[in-house]
Each structure stands twice: as C-alpha cells, then as structure tokens.
Amino acid sequence: MQEWWISLSGVQQLLWGLAVFFTLLFLLQIMAALFGVSDSSDTTDGGISADSAPSMFFTLRNAIVFFLGFSWGGLACIDANISILWAVLVGLIMVAINLLLLRGLASLNEAGNLSLDNTIGKEAVVSIPIPAKLSGCGKVNISFQSRLEELEATTEDEAIARGQPVKVLRVSDNNQLIVKNIVRNQVS
Length: 188
Fold this sequence. Notes:
By secondary structure, this protein is of the alpha+beta class.
C-alpha cells in the first residue's frame, strides 16, 4: 500500500485524498438524508426567483458533489492521459445532475392541506346521524383530494340517519358541511 502511494505523483495523491474524503462526506450526507437527519435548507424548490438563483449553486451539498466529481474525474483524466481540466467539467456536470434531482424531488412534495371547498357537490355517507334544521351536527365520510375524511356536517332539512347518502351543498362559516339527503329511486 505504501509503495503504491509513493509511486503516485503529487497531483494524484491530492486527487486520491479528495476522492476518499468527499466520497465519505457524500455517503454520510446520503445516510443523513435517508434517516431524516439532513438539513433541508440546501434543497431547491420549483419556484426559484432571480434573487435566490445564484445562492442555490453555492451550497455545502453542491460543494461536496462538485469535489466528488472533480476528484474522481481528475483521476480518470490522468489515467486516460487527457487534460485534468476536464475534471472541472465532470464536477460541474455532477452539480447539474444533483440540482436536477433535487428539483425533481421537490416537485414530488405535497402540502397535504385540505380545502373543504373541494367537497362541494360531492357525495358522502352519514357516519353519525345529522339532526334536523341546523339544530346540531353529525358526521359524514367523504372522499376528496385523494383522501377519505370524516367531517362534521349539518342539514337544513329533516334529520338524516346513519348510512344514508348525502350531497354537499356548501361549507358553513364554522367549517361544517351543509348537506342534503339524496333520495335514491329504488326499483322493486
């Protein structure tokens, strides 16, 4: 091992040192991200303003990725007997790939906030009976925004029993659904 290290030029020793160090940092960074320990301040989102565009390139994550690509690319350039300047291009390409991956991951993010206005016009099923004439509230099971939710509901009509289908008319000021009973024509 020592003979191999001594046989390397000073540039090769530097590149090997950088490659090992930044590979370890990169692996630590990936492990931290997998286990939720990483800092999310380096991530990029889809909406990049002109003021924040330069700052997204100069992050610790991008520095690690650049030197990872630069060091391994430099070693490959030396072995292929081409200019080590190509290693800078390899580092920049690695940063570009990193930014594209982060942007793609950020676009998968979903806020998960529910908008009750999206329930208007949808059908639901009563899970807790709804008292008549806005005299109290019951609950309905309703599917909207790719989720099944149990929400408070009231009606302006007669009481609605458990298991009955209802249609959402509007949302009240106190975030209760105003519903009406759906009468199904039964064929006998």
